[in-house]
Design brief:
Blueprint lengths: L9 H19 L1 H15 L1 H6 L2 H23 L7 H13 L3 H26 L8 H45 L3 H4 L2 H8 L4 E11 L14 E3 L5 E6 L4 E6 L5 H8 L4 E5 L3 E3 L3 H13 L7 E4 L4 H8 L1 H8 L3 H4 L3 H16 L4 H8 L3 H15 L6 H16 L9
Parallel strand pairs: 5-7
Antiparallel strand pairs: 1-4, 1-5, 1-6, 2-3, 3-4
């Protein structure tokens, strides 16, 4: 306990006595002081003017003046001051979104006005006692410091909780867009407001699945717009096995988004462009389909529009399995022969049906390619001179290589 509680300080005791002499008119004048300070704050601080109703502000200032006077007298006599109101005010203003600097400035202005009113009353009624007030000046600033510390601690705690709630809400709204339920739940207008996105615009979705050991560096906060300079703007949603970005393309093409994400240690699927937030759920589904066409062991990036045959098969696994049956006689061959024939088919398709170009790719003779092609035709009962058969075999090969055409026990 402060020594003042057990050992009388004659100077401070006299100052307390003098304040007691003017306490009646002092407290009677607090409504006028509160009215004056309210007018000044609302005129000079736009945050208060926008967020706090004048009547509420005036009542709170008057109450705080009474509390500050009681705290001053308690502190001067060595008693602990009551900080409950300061804590309550800090929490309430944080929830209203008032800047902390505005709040603390108002408290300090109130303290100065109260001290000015004390000195004016003493000077008018007891002018000779004015010097005796000086010991209380230091006490007043100690009290203001304690009050402002309590306000600050309460404000920051409440602001952190509010920010967490706001972030949770942004994440929930982002989820409704990405899962396509925004229209049904009527949440798109709120998403427009909270996420800072126009309802209509050029959007895409990217889905990233990290490779083992990938994504060691933390991303920006979820639900927060991030962007490279002059690039697309991304809103991230982080999950245990993948990361999903709602992308506001602005004037950019998906290819620019691909360049932005190409360095990631991940497999990446990118949707086509959609025209509104209501279509983002469909874009998410298409991005997931694009991601499933990534079959390599390392980083890979897939734009859906570049992989439509594979995407079609990924989206229709039953159809993919039926197509893969065309290759059943080939898949039944010994490993080396099977892969030799499949690699030749892939090279021949990639070469536009040119055996010479395929041979160059495979580092073998042109006749070797032709012999393997004939062997494939015999096994599959398909002819690579027939366009329909070419389509069937190309899709069957894609189904096999993406894995979606294999039955569960074979995949």
């Amino acid at each position: 306990m402060d020594a003042r509680a057990t050992t009388a300080d004659p100077g401070r005791s006299e100052a307390i006595r003098i304040v007691g002499l003017v306490q009646g008119p002092l407290t009677a004048g607090f409504p006028a002081v509160a009215h004056q300070l309210t007018a000044e704050i609302l005129r000079q601080d736009t945050a208060y003017a926008e967020l706090v109703p004048p009547a509420e502000l005036r009542a709170r200032i008057q109450h705080n003046l009474c509390q500050a006077l009681a705290a001053l007298l308690d502190h001067a006599q060595g008693r602990a001051i009551d900080l409950a109101d300061a804590t309550l005010t800090g929490r309430r203003r944080a929830e209203q979104g008032l800047p902390l600097a505005s709040l603390l400035h108002a408290y300090r202005r109130g303290g100065r006005l109260m001290w000015l009113r004390v000195t004016e009353l003493v000077k008018a009624d007891h002018p000779g006692a004015l010097p005796e007030l000086l010991p209380l000046a230091a006490d007043l600033w100690d009290v203001l410091d304690q009050i402002c510390d309590a306000v600050t601690e309460s404000y920051r705690s409440a602001a952190a909780a509010r920010a967490a709630r706001d972030q949770d809400r942004r994440n929930a709204l982002l989820d409704t867009l990405l899962d396509g339920s925004g229209v049904a739940t009527g949440s798109i207008p709120e998403a427009v407001s909270r996420l800072g996105l126009p309802e209509r615009g050029r959007y895409a979705v990217a889905v990233l699945r990290p490779l083992p050991g990938g994504f060691h560096q933390p991303r920006a906060g979820q639900g927060q717009l991030t962007a490279e300079q002059n690039g697309p703007r991304l809103l991230w949603r982080i999950h245990a096995d993948r990361e999903v970005a709602l992308v506001q393309l602005l004037s950019h093409e998906p290819a620019e988004l691909g360049r932005q994400l190409a360095h990631q240690p991940a497999r990446v699927g990118i949707s086509p462009v959609v025209g509104s937030l209501a279509d983002v759920g469909r874009a998410r589904w298409l991005a997931e389909i694009a991601l499933q066409t990534c079959t390599g062991d390392g980083p890979e990036l897939a734009h859906l529009d570049d992989r439509l045959p594979a995407a079609l098969l990924v989206a229709q696994p039953d159809l993919a399995q039926r197509l893969t049956r065309l290759l059943a006689p080939v898949l039944a061959l010994p490993h080396a022969e099977r892969h030799s024939l499949l690699d030749t088919l892939a090279a021949w398709l990639d070469s536009g049906g040119s055996a010479t170009t395929a041979a160059d790719r495979l580092y073998c003779h042109r006749n070797t390619v032709l012999n393997r092609i004939r062997r494939l035709e015999q096994l599959t009962h398909r002819t690579l001179g027939e366009p329909a058969h070419i389509v069937e075999l190309a899709l069957a090969l894609t189904a096999f290589r993406t894995g979606v055409g294999l039955p569960p026990e074979s995949s």
